[in-house]
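Researcher: Here's my situation. A collaborator sent me these components and asked whether they could plausibly form a single complex. I don't have experimental data yet, so a predicted model of the whole assembly would be a useful starting point for our discussion.
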Amino acid sequence: MRDRLDRWADPPLLVLASLAEEPKHGYAITQDIADTMGVRLSAGTLYAVISRLESRGLIEALESEDRRRPYRLTAAGAAELAEQSERMHQVSSVAQRRLRANYGWAGA
Amino acid sequence: MNERQARGAGLLARAALGLYPPTWRARYGDEVRALLDDSGAGARAAASLAWHAVPAWICPSPHLHDRPARMRASLGAVLAAWAVLAGLAAVFAQLAQAQGSAQSLTLASHPVIQWSYWVFDGAIVVSVLAVATGGLPLWLRMFGDARGARRRRDMACLLAPAVVPAAYLAVSALIAGLAHQAGARVVPSQARPVVDLANGNLGPWWFLALVLLGFAAALISAAGPGLALPRLRPDGPAVTRATRAAGLAVAAMLLAGAASIVATVGLYLWAPAYAGYHESWQLASYIPVVLLAAAIAVVSAARGIRAVRSPAA
């Protein structure tokens, strides 16, 4: 089995990042994640994540008259996303600095 | 993918939704169907939905139901699965340990078989004690509530675990007695008796009928309290204790099931002439049924224990 090196793309973080823009329903979340982050979440994965995030109080459902119920980030969700983003940013900064110094990487 | 294949994949994805627990479907079902309508349901969506149904059962989201309801549902399912496992254990004991002729004991004296018997006996005792100590206080409370409210239907359901097994044992004793009296008139039609029930040499079809009747009795016994639980809606420490005890009872029953499988395979390998284990189809049917009942019991017990541990709403 191949080692996974794409843990940054954990679906819960992607969903939180997507909802940080504005409230969205399921299809809008998958489209946003595919367009901006290049990851396509399947229906089962998306709703497993939504259920987990909702039970932890990181997102909340908004009222909707049709079947497409939108979700929004809660204050706890925003704090969690900020903490995880900071960690990713630290890793990213270190990696880019060392790549530039030792491998002549010009940067993205 | 052509139109026909796409329609098939869409139907498959919607069918996969049926694999989820009812509370999950009630909360997210419409949204998922809307997503499938918007994004076009394919084989990937169907496979993904089916795959994620497993954790939805094992680790249900705590916000989807209240804890006592989760524990009550878990108790009902565990009781049914435990009753089937107990029935299987009785069949195993009858076909293996109760066959006490000198020849059988010699044939089945392999140390692995002997150890399996001892583990099986100990685990069954622990499991029955766990059911009794955890279930009896809850049963008494529910029966008191049903009697106080004059709910005769619930009282009848709650009495099922006492009345139905007693009736079954009486019928079994009657059949065994008749077989014993009939003796030579019954047995010669069989090349070899399947089971030596109280030396009655019960033929295979009578034994099979008794086994099926026993499973029906076990399921009816479990269904009684299982039906009364959601109607009487007990909660509090009695339900929590019963749920914990159900977890222990299932764990012990799993150990007994594993020991019986080891003993069964041992008898098949090292005692091929042993009564009841000379046919490989018996082995091939016993083990899958044990595994299926065990899987249901484990998932239900795990859901109950998670509800006990989850913070109160």
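Model: Some features of this prediction you could bring to your collaborator: The two ends of chain B are 47 Å apart (CA to CA). Chain B has ten helices and no strands.
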